[in-house]
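Submission checklist for the structure archive. All mandatory fields must be present; incomplete records are returned to the submitter.

[x] Identifier: C-1-tetrahydrofolate synthase, cytoplasmic
[x] Organism: Arctia plantaginis
[x] Residue count: 933
[x] Sequence attached
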Amino acid sequence: MVAIPISGTSVAGSIQNELRQEVAEAQVQSAAFSPKLAIVQVGGREDSNVYIRMKLKAAQNIGVEAEHIKLPSDITETELLAKITSLNESPSVHGIIVQMPLDTVHPINPHIITDAVSPDKDVDGLNTVNEGRVAVGDFSGFVPCTPAGCIELIKRAGVSIAGKNVVVLGRSRIVGTPVAELLKWENATVTVCHSKTKNLSDITKTADILVVAIGRPEMVRGSWVKPGAVVIDCGINAIDDPSKASGKRLVGDVAYEEAALVASHVTPVPGGVGPMTVAMLMRNTVLAARRQLNRLLAPTWPLRPLRITPLSPPPSDIVIARSQKPKDISELAHEIGLFPNEVSQYGRTKAKISLSVLERFRNTRGGKYIVVAGITPTPLGEGKSTTLLGLVQALSAHRGRNSFAVMRQPSQGPTFGVKGGAAGGGYSQVIPMEEFNLHLTGDIHAVTAANNLLAAQMDARIFHELTQKDGPLFDRLVPKVKGIRKFSPIQLRRLKRLGINKTDPDSLTNEEKVKFARLNIDTNKIMWNRVVDLNDRYLRKITVGQSPTEKGFTRETAFDISVASEIMAILALGNDIDDIKERLANMVVALDKNGNPVTADDLGMTGALLVLLRDAFEPTLMQSLEGSPVLVHTGPFANIAHGCSSILADKLAMKLAGENGYVATEAGFGSDIGMEKFFDIKCRASGDTPHCAVIVSTVRALKMHGGGPPVSPGQPLHDVYVQENLELLSKGLCNLGKHISNGNKFGVPVVIAINKHGNDTLAELNMVKEYALKNGAFRAVLCDHWAKGGLGAVELADAVIEACDASSNFQFLYSLDLSIQDKIKKIATEMYGAGKIEYTDEVIEKIKQFTEMGYDKFPICMAKTSNSLTGDPAIKGAPTGFTMRINGIFVSVGAGFVVPMVGEISRMPGLPTRPSIYDIDLNTKTGEIEGLF
């Protein structure tokens, strides 16, 4: 008998061809598909170099990107582990192998190293987790390459394994042990032999299949082999051979010539198992990349909702929030498709999400885009945030759709004032609600610091220009450092804006030096205030510069609340960091004495602002009470800015949700100012097209608009609000009708969410629903998510799904080519119902000035009360034909909008007589916050 050689080279070639075809087909499915293998080598052993070259060649042949990472032999174990960690966390790396043996001068435990490779990227199959999986017949991980190659060779030779007696010589964790386990799960009867086994040759002669991985050259003789057996030789040894030019020749652990006379099949060395090891490595790498692609293309996340057990009546928000144990934020991040290096945890319940996710998903189509706004609210609020969260809980936990809630970060002003936090309420809220409402990840504090540093630099520059002559001022602005004087990059940008095309400070003429050094800020035309994230009425007007060190250069100014800072609006409107940087640079803080704008870039501040805001660029991931993902980012003041969460958070959410997913984001207040600004400012800046608008309505608010008595925080509701009153309700329905009309003007389906309160009657709720459907709503739905969580918003979710699938014709309310006054008229007449617009002489003059400076091409951001469609908060319902007076106007050049002022809009709220402060305390024994909502 002469054995049939089992050519590993031939089989490996076939496998590589199959893999090349698989990669090409996957790239048709997704252009982003690009399998990548990282090969980590410590030192420079020549035998390792040979193996690595084989792997690199095979990878190139298949279409796998292989990166050879060469590390010095003096690397420490800690340094090597750190490198492996960085590869584990990289989304672009699908497979990692560490070439063994390690060629290092320091002691490094190889088992620790192989276990450091993530099981999901362990394409060598040497991590203990993957080895354990193989041992129990779980092949969901990666099978070690050489054992997998052995099984493949046996099968492709046409040899059946089931029922055969198999003997494995060797019990190493790399070959012997795992191949024995694989053969066992192929239904063979397996005997493992090792150095302590007695009567070894007698045992091997019982084997129908003999696998040898003993590491001794030609140890197994022909007499050890059962006639007709299949012999798989995993060994490779160099022995002396004077007939070879190198003086060496490669042989296996089996005496091939002898075994070939007895066996039916035998693998040669070289050209047997060796090429198969490389082929299996490539197969595992492509499998790893395919798994990542499948996860990316999966119609739904493997999201595990959190169960809630609503109580009736529901307890307080804080009691409900604390009754739920949130998922570890890293678990939620994994469920929605994020990688560890894209998640920076702040404790266990919140994390910053890297903007690099947008690049990774650049070829992925985003999900459906939904804005949640309201009717004209009562001072108590109508549950817009609660509805947003109830909707997303219904979509994700009850309808199995990928869905995100994207929310603004609440200011501490209302948290410690009267309104309270903005985490939603009842069984539809963000958890932990204390963390959501207090500090979060510090973004508002970063905005505060950046804003105030800019103010400090501006005042300092004014002082230094007033107290220094031209020459010393220039010399201090461009000092000699080690005998060399040069402009910084930001100073070069100022020179360019001034038309001075020079880079050598000493080459400037005296006139040019003065032009560069003096901003000549007109202290009567400063537009930049300091900010603090608290309600503090006594900061509405202050005098600065009263210290004797300021030499009498005092001026009047004011503080705004931090969320009113233009920096906050810019964070919310930036499409990427470069866009944010440009907007920050363009912020106009004052006019000079010639009426020209002075920018943050002129003050040298752009880079410093970016550094302070670096972490604030990234949205914060949290979760709802039912474990749905929530992105929290930015919180621009809704009265004088656009009042929406960030473009970046929305884009991230849409990419992660995928084409079949849903992203619901909130707009401030009602459709008249919140939703209009969302469409005309935010969507214009982002380029994203909304699919649906949800408008939240309550019986309580509509009764107020029908003529009901005032509703005040902290005061008991009047009887008309807690008892059925269809007449009063019917009179207020006009307000709902106006908001439906507003939404329809933008060409998107409008879904009305009727947020049920405990005292509402079915007759009242049905009256609202019938009116909405008769007056242009796409759907009108009764919602009970406050009391029931997502289950109470399932009908709303179904309506939103239907609306997003319906045809829409989104359009902006106005063209940017219109004049400032024409844009104001368009908004005031069509969104508010005004009949006439009046302007003060000062506003007319500023509009003329803004037009000359090119600001007339900006969208309009109306600053108006949220408590009425008019400029008077006392006027309810839906009046028409009224006169609207514009009594002030300013421009946020960096944010990119013009702000007309209607009535008195405070940029710094004040604390009431009895703020929430009285109820808030910290339990010093448990560390829990008490009295918060």
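[x] Structure attached
Curator remark: The longest helix spans residues 273-297. The two ends are 88 Å apart (CA to CA).
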